[in-house]
C-alpha cells in the first residue's frame, strides 16, 4: 500500500527522535529534499501526495542511514558554509558554523590593510574540506582584493575534497594545494626562515583531547575522521607544533589566527608566551560567549631556538 508524503515524514521524525537526533523533523524533511531534489515550498504544496513504493523504499533506506548515526551532511554530501556550498564526505570534517567566525575575523583583519603588490599571501593549515581557504578566496575575490592562498593538509583524500570545493565555488586558480604535515611542506632558507612569507596563517587544527574522543556524539565519534579531531592527550599537540614554527613563515606584520576549543582560552595565551616569539595573544569569544579564536602576532625579537633576530632577516 502506498503512503502519503506526510506519513513517511512523520514516521521518520518519530524514529529520529527515538534515536536521539537533535533535529528529527528537520532531518526528515532535509532527507526528502535531497532524495527528490526539491525544496520546502514544493513540500508544502505536495504534503498530502501519495508516494509509490519505490520512492518510499528509497526514502526509508536513507532514514536507516541517518537513524544509524551517519551525519545528515554525509548522506546528502553537502554542507553550507559562509553562504557557499561545500561537498563533504567521511574523509573530511563537516564545516561548523563556529568556524565562520574565524573566516569573518580573517576578512576583517585584511580589510584594514593595504594589499601588497603581489597580493595577500595566506596559508590555511589543516585545510580539510577547504571551507576556510575557499571561503577566504571567494570573499576576497568578491572584494576585488588580489590574493594567493595556500591550503595544506596531511591527508591526500582531504585535499581531493578541498580541490573539488574550490572548483565548485570558482576559486581553484586562486588556491595552491600542498600535501604535508603542518610546516614540513614549506622549505626554509639558509637562515632558517620560510622561503615563502605569509601575511596571514589560519588554522582550525585537531584540538579534542584523545581521552574525550569516545565521549563525543556518535555522529562525530563513529563517522568523522579521527585524524582531524585528535589533538593529543591534552588537545594541545598541534598548537604547540604550530607555535613552534609559524613565526618563521609570517611576513612582517603577519598574523596567526587559530580556532580553539571552548575550554582552551586560558591555556593558549600561556603557550603563546612560552613560545617566546610572539606578543600577547588575544582571545575572541563566539556569539555564545565561548572562547573560540586566538589572534597572535610575532615580535621582532629573538628566535628562542637560535638566539638571532630572525624577523629582521630575509
Summarize, please:
This protein is of the alpha/beta class and 314 residues long. It has helices spanning 5-18, 24-36, 40-45, 53-67, 72-76, 100-111, 131-142, 156-168, 218-223, 237-245, 267-275; strands at 3-4, 50-51, 78-81, 84-87, 120-125, 147-153, 175-179, 198-203, 250-259, 282-285, 291-296.
Quick one: CATH class of the largest domain?
Alpha Beta
Overall pLDDT score = 91
Helix/strand-derived category reads alpha/beta
The largest sheet has its strands arranged as 7-6-5-8-9-11-10
CATH superfamily (homologous) name of the largest domain = Vaccinia Virus protein VP39
Distance between the termini: 76 Å
Number of discrete helical segments: 11
Bulk shape: elongated
The number of distinct β-strands equals 11
Amino acid at each position: 500500500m502506498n503512503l502519503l508524503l506526510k506519513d513517511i515524514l512523520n514516521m521518520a521524525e518519530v524514529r529520529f527522535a527515538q534515536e536521539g537526533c537533535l533535529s528529527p523533523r528537520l532531518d526528515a524533511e532535509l532527507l526528502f529534499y535531497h532524495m527528490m531534489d526539491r525544496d520546502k515550498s514544493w513540500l508544502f504544496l505536495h504534503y498530502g501526495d501519495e508516494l509509490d513504493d519505490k520512492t518510499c523504499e528509497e526514502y526509508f533506506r536513507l532514514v536507516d542511514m541517518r537513524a544509524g548515526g551517519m551525519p545528515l551532511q554525509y548522506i546528502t554530501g553537502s554542507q553550507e558554509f559562509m553562504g557557499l556550498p561545500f561537498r563533504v564526505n567521511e574523509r573530511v570534517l563537516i564545516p561548523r558554523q563556529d568556524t565562520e567566525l574565524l573566516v569573518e575575523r580573517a576578512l576583517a583583519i585584511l580589510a584594514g590593510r593595504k594589499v601588497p603588490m603581489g597580493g595577500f599571501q595566506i596559508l590555511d593549515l589543516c585545510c580539510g574540506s577547504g571551507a576556510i581557504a575557499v571561503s577566504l578566496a571567494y570573499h576576497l575575490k568578491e572584494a576585488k582584493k588580489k590574493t594567493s592562498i595556500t591550503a595544506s593538509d596531511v591527508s591526500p583524500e582531504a585535499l581531493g575534497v578541498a580541490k573539488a570545493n574550490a572548483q565548485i565555488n570558482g576559486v581553484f586558480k586562486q588556491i595552491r594545494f600542498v600535501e604535508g604535515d603542518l610546516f614540513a611542506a614549506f622549505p626554509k632558507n639558509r637562515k632558517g626562515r620560510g622561503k615563502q612569507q605569509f601575511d596571514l596563517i589560519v588554522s582550525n587544527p585537531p584540538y579534542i583531547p584523545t581521552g574525550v574522543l569516545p565521549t563525543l556524539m556518535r555522529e562525530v565519534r563513529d563517522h568523522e575522521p579521527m585524524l582531524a579531531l585528535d589533538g593529543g592527550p591534552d588537545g594541545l599537540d598541534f598548537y604547540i607544533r604550530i607555535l613552534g614554527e609559524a613565526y618563521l613563515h609570517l611576513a612582517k606584520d603577519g598574523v596567526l589566527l587559530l580556532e580553539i576549543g571552548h575550554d582552551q582560552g586560558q591555556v593558549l595565551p600561556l603557550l603563546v608566551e612560552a613560545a617566546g616569539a610572539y606578543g600577547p595573544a588575544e582571545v575572541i569569544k563566539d556569539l555564545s560567549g565561548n572562547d573560540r579564536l586566538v589572534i597572535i602576532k610575532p615580535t621582532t625579537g629573538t628566535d628562542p631556538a637560535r638566539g638571532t633576530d630572525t624577523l629582521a632577516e630575509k
